[in-house]
Specification:
With 264 residues, the protein is mostly helical. The chain has a single domain (5-34, 56-262), classed as Ferritin, CATH 1.20.1260. 65% of the residues lie in helices and 2% in strands. It has a two-stranded parallel sheet with strand order 1-2. Helix 1 packs antiparallel against helix 2 (18-33), helix 5 (145-152) runs antiparallel to helix 6 (157-185) and helix 6 packs antiparallel against helix 7 (189-220).
């Protein structure tokens, strides 16, 4: 039988080695773009993606604060971003594979395959940075909060879109500019350049979240902004923290009327 897109997604999710996740994401992304993966398929994705033995996973509250003033602090920060991007690879492929009962158009799959390929490239940029600085992904502890959000929203595509691209990725738009500034102030122009690339490329990811959230709401006869706010209040463990990167969010089609009523 020919390989389906969902088969490909499950191959990535079941790959424990980060380098293999990156390689498969690029490979299958290229195959999809070339029209060689035309059938969507319906295989069931794993409840959790495969992970390497390292890093050790901790509760988010147990993670030490990362400071930019020392090389070790910057390594710890970039390691944390690498962990986020590795999770983001799996989150994108899980979006592709998990909600096939929704009768989604081909462009939905195209968007999230593209997001997965971007996240894989971002992870590789960060892994290369760590390697150039005598470190490697897995050297430091990391937390499992991102996949907890995926687990909490595995039952409903609207909840997944609300929490992952429209809370967690949107938060990245808010925090990245200050991190870039701090890295530059401490002379780490390589790290700053990587974060600038990631920050710019996350805007279309948030835009995809808005686009498909609105699409599903239209199909279900729901008002998008009120539905988003209800889902965040009921599904998200925490509050949305100002200040918001309103320009970057607006560039993604995510205006303040969506999220300001939720600000803690």
């Amino acid at each position: 039988m020919p390989l389906t897109l969902i088969d490909a997604a499950c191959h990535v999710l079941n790959a424990a080695d980060p380098a293999e996740k990156v390689r498969l994401s690029a490979h299958y992304g290229g195959q999809w773009a070339a029209g060689k993966l035309q059938e969507i398929g319906s295989a069931r994705p794993p409840e959790r993606p495969a992970r390497p033995e390292r890093p050790t996973l901790c509760r988010p509250g147990d993670m030490k604060r990362r400071r930019f003033g020392s090389p070790g602090g910057r390594i710890a920060f970039m390691h944390a971003i690498a962990h986020i991007e590795l999770n983001a690879i799996d989150l994108a492929w899980d979006m592709v594979a998990r909600f096939t009962d929704e009768d989604l158009p081909a462009q939905f799959y195209a968007d999230w395959v593209g997001v997965a390929a971007d996240e894989a490239r971002h992870f590789q940029l960060l892994a290369d940075y760590l390697n150039k600085n005598a470190a490697a992904y897995g050297d430091l502890p990391a937390h499992d909060g991102l996949w907890e959000a995926a687990h909490l929203t595995s039952d409903d595509i609207l909840a997944r879109l609300a929490l992952v691209p429209l809370v967690l990725e949107a938060r990245g738009l808010d925090t990245t500019p200050a991190a870039i500034q701090k890295l530059r102030q401490n002379g780490d122009t390589d790290a700053a350049a990587i974060l600038k690339t990631i920050g710019a490329e996350e805007i279309p990811h948030v835009a995809a979240g808005v686009r498909w959230f609105e699409y599903i709401c239209e199909v279900r006869g729901l008002e998008p902004k009120a539905t988003y706010q209800d889902l965040v209040r009921t599904r998200f463990k925490g509050t949305l923290k100002a200040p918001f990167a309103t320009d970057a969010r607006a560039a993604a089609g995510f205006d303040a009327a969506w999220y300001e009523p939720l600000a803690g």
